[in-house]
Amino acid sequence: MLKVEQRKELGAERRAPFECIALLLQGGGALGAYQAGVYEALSEAGIHPDWVAGISIGAVNSAIIAGNPPEKRVEKLRGFWELVTNDVLGRWMPDFLTSSMRGDWLRGLLNQVSANSAMLGGVPGFFTPRRPPPWLRPMGTIEATSFYDTAKLKSTLESLVDFDRINAQETRFSVGAVNVRSGNFVYFDSTTHTIGPEHVMASGALPPGFAAVEIEGESYWDGGLVSNTPLQWVLDSAPRRDTLAFQVDLWNARGGFPGNLAEVQTRQKEIQSSSRTRANTDQFKRAQRIRNTVAALLERLPDDLKGEPNAKLLRSIADRKVYNMVHLIYRAKAYEGNSKDYEFSRLSMETHWGAGYHDTVRTLRHPDVLKRPTNLEGVAVFDLERDDRG
User: Fold this and answer.
1) Residue 285: left if φ>0, alpha if ψ -120 to 50, beta else—which one?
2) E-only strand ranges, 93-171
3) What is the pLDDT of residue 9?
4) Distance of CA 139 to the CA centre of its chain
5) What is the separation of C-alpha 5 from the centre of its chain, rounded to a whole number of angstroms?
6) Please, are residues 329 and 18 in contact by the beta-carbon 8 Å criterion?
7) For the chain, does the N or the C end have fewer beta carbons within 10 angstroms?
């Protein structure tokens, strides 16, 4: 494994030939430490995003990244994830048990204890249970609509994120949320909004755990209710630019057939929360092929036809922009069950962080990840699981 200094030097020598480097972060609660590990590896490789976009916990990680200078981002991410996790499992789980069958069984049991602790007692710097509970609150009040209060998250964001930096647009920032009344999916983007903690919290306000967040007279819930990835928002953005996109997913759409009801619940959550990135990518490839083909045809038109209204209309969709899409997916361990997204132990956080870091280091070894694609679509997709690289 290269030393940090060597990785930084290597990254400085291979600035990607793209107009935009985008980091896209999915929702997934406690699993979000995987995204922090991904960012650490990218940072060490000298790859700093021009645009970060997230949903739910991905919105929190995105805010910490966009709201700090590059040299402080990993430190601030580490600060957040150490704040919201506890070290109970590390004290109860001897190292020699973690790699054995018995260790997997015990780790699964302790993980569930840790998840129950978060559910009953809340998470430091994040959320606390409502007391009295919502069903004992007056109907029509915000306290009656959720099990937890996220006031602590607002304080945490204000301590870790420089929102003036986000609004200065040094790094573009986007988070998705759902309007409770209309059901419409909206993005709060630093190019169109003045971003504050409430926009990040709205993106992660997953009911019925968390209450809707009010912004400018409207109430918003977690964007994952409609789409758990900001991929489409980035791909559809205008003006179009040559883009290197790192899509970081916390839920794997692929999995085995469940053997009991607990596994059914886990698999159901994985499927519902996954981004279906491969299907979206295939559709995008087809659209790109059409754009490139139209651009080629327009170049061959006689000069007297290039000013025709139909030609002008076609020119509005034609371009030769290219996209590299790097897909990184957290793959849950055998002992992780249905509660893995609210299991906030320090031991699990370190496991998730390390997985994100090493998956990214392995992916960046591919010689073409940072090269412009040359195929007809102008799109190259890199998938660690599908490509099976070591």
Assistant:
1) alpha
2) 128-129, 148-149
3) 44
4) 35
5) 27
6) no
7) C
State how far the Cα of 310 lies from the Cα of 327, in Å rounded to an integer: 37
Instruction: Name the one residue in this structure whose structure tokens are 């499927």.
Output: 271
Helix (H) or strand (E) run with residue 61 in it: helix 57-66
Integer Cα distance of 167 and 266 in angstroms? 38
Query: Per DSSP, which regions of 94-179 are E strands?
Result: 128-129, 148-149, 172-179
Cβ atoms of 117 and 123 within 8 Å: the answer is no
Q: Rounded distance, CA 26 to CA 255, Å?
A: 18
Res 94: pLDDT: 54
CB neighbours (10 Å) of residue 49? 23
Strands 148-149, 172-179: pairing kind: unpaired
What count of other Cβ atoms lies within 10 Å of the Cβ of residue 256? 7
Instruction: Output the six-digit token pair for 319.
Output: 């371009």
Whether 22 contacts 340, CB under 8 Å: no
Could you tell me which of 162, 155, 202 has the C-alpha nearest to residue 76? 162
Rounded to whole angstroms, the Cα distance separating 244 from 322 reads 9
CB-based contact 314:298 (threshold 8 Å): yes
What pairing do the DSSP bridges indicate for beta strands 128-129 and 148-149? Answer: antiparallel
Using CB atoms within 10 A of its CB, is residue 388 exposed (0-12), middle (13-18) or buried (19+)? exposed
Cα 249 to the center of its chain, rounded Å: 6
Rg (CA), the chain: 22
Residue 124 and residue 150: Cα distance in Å, rounded? 10
169 alpha carbon, distance to own chain's centre: 19
217-250 confidence digits (pLDDT tens): 999 999 999 988 898 899 888 888 999 999 999 9
Question: What does the pLDDT read at residue 121?
Answer: 93
**Residue 226, both tokens:** 């409609």
**Whose structure tokens read 């020699």?**
96
Joined tokens for residue 258? 């469940």
DSSP 302-323: -TTTTTSHHHHHHHTT-----E
Pairing state of beta strands 128-129 and 51-54? unpaired
